[in-house]
Structure formats: structure tokens, C-alpha cells
Amino acid sequence: MAINSLVRRRGYRALLGVSCLTAVLGIGTLSLADTEIQPSPPSIGADVPVTYFGPPPSSVEPELVGPLLLMKSGVVDANLGTVTLPLYRGQLKDGRNIWYILTDTDDRGNADALGLNFSAKLTYANACDKARHATLEGDGSLTFDRGTVDFSPDRSLTPGDPGAPFPPKAQQPGSVGDADYTPIVKFESGGGHIYNAPMIAFDVAAETLNAYCTGSPDKKKVHDKVVKICPRDGTVTLNLTTGFSFSRPVFYLSTDTNDPVASTLEEATLAPGLLNVLTGGDDTFTSPVERLFAFTNGPQNVAPKEINPQRQGLFSAIIDGNGPLNVLGGIPTNATDYSPLWDFNLGEWTAESVTNGYRSRMTDEFQILGMVSRGFLTGPGGKPYGSTGIVVNCPIVQRLL
Fold this sequence. Notes:
The protein has helices at about 5-10, 30-35, 110-115, 205-210, 260-265, 315-320, 350-355, 365-375, and strands spanning about 70, 75, 80-85, 90, 95-100, 105, 115-120, 130-135, 140-145, 150, 155-160, 170, 175, 185, 195, 200, 225-230, 235-240, 240-245, 250, 255, 270, 290-295, 325-330, 340-350, 375-380, 385-395, 395-400.
């Protein structure tokens, strides 16, 4: 099967540090590579069944080892790699429907009350007042001042050369925002706080979307990550992506990027408004981003259908259809600097690293930076390592360990 056909049929998505190439296949089940990073039961190698083991330490203290739902507004199906979230309806000033989700806010009280992620850094995502503005109506809905998304394009990808399939030769994101669209919203009626409110559908009646309550949505009407959408129940189910944060496997939701290649790979909306987000500053004062680390030429499978336990990276993901397994910086419970806006850092293993067998799966930010400092990882083509200027909106959903 040609690579392009494989990509189209299997629904390749992204954790693409370019944001977040996905670990979840379009058929709604986790790939072999992605189930590989999920923790194994503690009964392996023991003389007692798993039922004899107590609850994970994370159930006592969130920072300890074990599974932990971070976006508490969601219900995660770990077997399918999906999350079901509340679906909200709003409108533009001209009355057209906007269907959206809420994932993060810089309002700590409302984050706790609604089960959203708290991110102090989101305050600085409104540089030059580029966020969309929302006001509260008498019926409880929000009216947005600007920003539309066209969900009708057919997503397509033409890989690059066989030996180097990334970057692709051509790409078409499945959803494209206008010049004003950004998922970042300033809630004028809510103390001016900043919310992450990705758009899921636009200018579609509730009756039309209710036909997809049991699944098989028309991707020309909804976000490509949508598995099921049901206005009458007030819910939407979306595919997740797997990655690592400080060596802990995680699920996150990739919804928007400011780059057409990343948007196509991630099955995310191209959001031109995210071009206004400052990158390169990481954890400095006024920085709205955290870093995400991806690789071009990471370890690949040695044969079709054979999973290399070290596999990782964009070359591998495009060739075998599995996720690239990108690495995220700080998330809630292991750091204080979480942001759903990820600054994509793309690395390339040097020829020396490959020849000497130093290339392997990376799972930790400082492990990666150590490889960079030793000269084993560079930017693409040997360029200096650092930010690509690509921003990916990837709210963290669950820590798996």
C-alpha cells in the first residue's frame, strides 16, 4: 500500500511536537506502538493475581506514581484512546452557531469547579489583545466577537522522499480557521479570564449533529478528532494522543496549530491566530508556552508489522502509521509551569549518533537536552536546536503513570 494511501485510510494524527502526532488510529483504537507505552500490570512476575494489589499511590497523593485524570471534566476510555467532554453551544455576533469545548483556564477557582486544567501561563497568551472575546448572554450562552472555522476540506498528505518522508511534499488540513480564529478566548463577563476553548463545529444546527450521537460523524461538519458528538446530551467524544512527560506516559488532546503541516499531521485545526503566541521563551516571565520535543529520524520498525520497542519520531510515524511519541515538558502534578500551548522543538539524530548506536527512544525533557548538549541531537539539517515557531494546542488529559 502506498504511504499516501496508508496515511489517508488509517487516519494518521499527531503528537507532532510540531505538535503532537497521534498515537490513536482513525479507527478509534490504540495502535500497537501506543499500547506499548501503557503501564503493565504489577502482577507480572509475581505469585499473586493483580486483584491482590492495592490502589496506586496516585490515589493517595496525586504527585505519586500511578494513573491520574487531570482534566476531570472528561471521561477517558483508555482502551479506545478517547475522552468524552461537555459540549458547549455559543454564537458569533451574527447568530451563527459555535460548538466548542473548554479545557484550560487561568482562573484557578473555575478550573477546580469545572474540572479544567489550571494554567497560569494562559494569562500571557493574550499578547496584543489577540484572543477572541466572549460575552455572557441571558440564556447562559457566550457570544464571540470573531473567528470562524471551515471544517469542510478533505485532509490529505503527500509524504516526502522514501528515505525522509518528513517534511511532506504537500498537505491539506482538514479544518482551517480564518485570520481571526484562535482557541484562546478572553471571557469579558467572567473577570477577563483567559480560557482555552477550541471550536469543534461551526454554523451547524443541533438537529444535524444529533445524528452523530452514536458515532460516524461527517468530518466535513466537525473537527477531525471527533468520534461522537451529541448536542442533546451535551457531550462530544474525541480521539487522544499519547506521549511522555518526564518519563511518564500521558494522554493529551491535540486540537489546533498555527502551521499547515502540523495541522494536517495532527488532524488539528489550522488556527492563524496562534501565530501571535510568543515562542522561544519557555519558562521566562510572560511566556505563554511550554516546550514539546519531537524527532525526525528516530528509531524505526525493522520490518512491516514488527514493533521496535525503541521506535519514535516523524519518519517512523509516517511510514508505519503509528504515533511519533513526542515528549512534553511540565504538566500538572510534576511541574508548576504547565501550558496547553506547546512550543514545538524538532530534533534530528546526527549521523554519528546513528552509526554508534546512541539513537534510542527519549521520554524526558532533560534527557533530550543532555543529548543536544553533547552534540548527538541537532535541529533538522544540522541547524541549531530550538524552537521552530510552531505552536500546538494540546491540553493534557490524563497521566497514565
